[in-house]
Amino acid sequence: MTAENIPRATAKRLPIYYRYLNILHDTGKHRISSTELAEAVQVDSATIRRDFSYFGALGKRGYGYEVDSLLTFFKQILNQEHLTNVALIGVGNLGHALLNFNFHKDGNVRISAAFDIDDHIVNKIEDGVPVYPIPELAHQLQEQQIQVVILTVPSKAAQAVTDDAVAGGVKGILNFTPIRLSVPDDVLVQNVDLTNELQTLIYFIENFGK
Ligand code: ATP
């Protein structure tokens, strides 16, 4: 079974499982039932069983799953042993926070290059990461074989920067701007609108909270 054969919905849950199994591993736990796992990761146990069956990891009735063998398997599927370099575009407040965020601690990702237009920070090292001027974006992405970028520029700059990144061969964009980006079909965009998320949460608390 390779990552391509796994349904998208299942693939999206893999990092959740992986993170929790790591925690179990660190606390010295060797096995877990699908019911326990369901409670911990908030995914129902039938879904977990179906997800795991795609990997041929069939839990034994009354025994559950072996934590270590699942971890080894997920590590391989998620390519955790392979470090993926990611670029960050827009080193403002949020950009700085993300540069300081330790993605690598429980993942396979690190920000290895940043881009900005501000003369005060370009051609310098910010939080351990080199900041390149925006006109170098496409070239550097190609040169450094970076296929994923995090977008933390102001909204008005988002589409133009995206076009440059696409020209540089980018395949995935984690978009922190509220803009809906236009990209070719083979480029994936994952939108993270923090303001929207927070407002949704507040709305639910105000309207449906106890
Ligand atoms: P944040 O929105 O992350 O809190 P901020 O308020 O500090 O950031 P913004 O004006 O949103 O600042 O800009 C974020 C960063 O994007 C800044 O470092 C800015 O220099 C940079 N930036 C602005 N325009 C562009 C552009 N066209 N290309 C690349 N970077 C840009």
Secondary-structure topology with pairs:
Elements lengths: L7 H19 L4 E2 L1 H8 L3 H10 L10 E2 H11 L6 E6 L3 H8 L8 E8 L8 E2 L2 E5 L3 H7 L4 E4 L3 H13 L4 E4 L12 E4 L2 H15 L2
Parallel strand pairs: 3-4, 3-7, 4-6, 7-8, 8-9
Antiparallel strand pairs: 1-2, 5-6
Helix pairs in contact: 1-4, 2-3
The structure holds adenosine-5'-triphosphate.
Adenosine-5'-triphosphate (ATP) binds next to helix 5 and helix 7.
Offer a few descriptive terms.
Arc Repressor Mutant, subunit A; Rossmann fold; globular; 210 residues; 9 strands
Please tell me about this protein's structure:
With 210 residues, the protein is an alpha/beta fold. It is 43% helix and 18% strand. The chain has a seven-stranded mixed beta sheet, with helices on both faces. It has a two-stranded antiparallel ribbon with strand order 1-2. A hairpin with a 2-residue loop joins strand 5 and strand 6. Helix 1 (8-26) crosses helix 4 (67-77) and helix 2 (34-41) packs across helix 3. The structure holds adenosine-5'-triphosphate. Homodimer. Pfam families: CoA_binding (PF02629), Put_DNA-bind_N (PF06971). This is Redox-sensing transcriptional repressor Rex. Modulates transcription in response to changes in cellular NADH/NAD(+) redox state.
